[in-house]
Write a structure and sequence with these properties.
single chain, alpha/beta, 5 strands
Length: about 160
């Protein structure tokens, strides 16, 4: 990845981390921030966990701000501080599936979901298998994890 793209990824992920700090802490849920950026480098939508209700995930909140058939999604990147979920409680659509349905071709994450609530999150694998480019930014993992210090058992 050339330097300008990496710099942009780091900048937008920091924005997502800042959003995650706005999450109302919940004992059984991660605090996550997400930002959707258009091909032109401008913000299309953003969100954070529990911004609009007690069960909403960050990616879900951000995607809900856009029309499902918004043509800009085909060239967009979504930045999420945590790997998009591959399973949800009840009948809610997992975030990895939402991203695939939206047609977003690139996902950038700060860290993969540990087995705190879900034994084996495979959102990363589902996205890659479907042809989505997934980029991890390990240098921002500690900052993203720090927002979740309210969770017992998170190491």
């Amino acid at each position: 990845m050339h330097a300008p793209a990496r710099d942009q990824d780091l900048r937008w992920m920091q924005c997502a981390i800042d959003l995650s700090a706005l999450c109302p802490p919940a004992v059984g849920a991660y605090s996550v921030g997400a930002v959707i950026i258009g091909e032109d480098g401008t913000e299309m939508a953003s969100g954070y966990s529990r911004a609009t209700g007690p069960h909403e995930h960050a990616e879900e909140v951000a995607l809900a701000q856009l029309a499902p058939d918004d043509p800009r999604l085909a060239e967009a990147t979504i930045y999420s501080t945590l790997e998009p979920c591959s399973q949800r409680r009840a009948s809610r659509t997992p975030c990895a599936q939402r991203i695939l349905e939206a047609g977003i071709p690139r996902v950038v994450i700060a860290w993969r979901e540990p087995s705190l609530f879900v034994d084996d999150c495979v959102g990363y694998e589902q996205l890659v298998q479907a042809g989505v480019t997934v980029v991890e930014l390990p240098e921002l993992m500690a900052a993203a994890k720090a927002i979740n210090s309210h969770l017992p058992g998170l190491s």
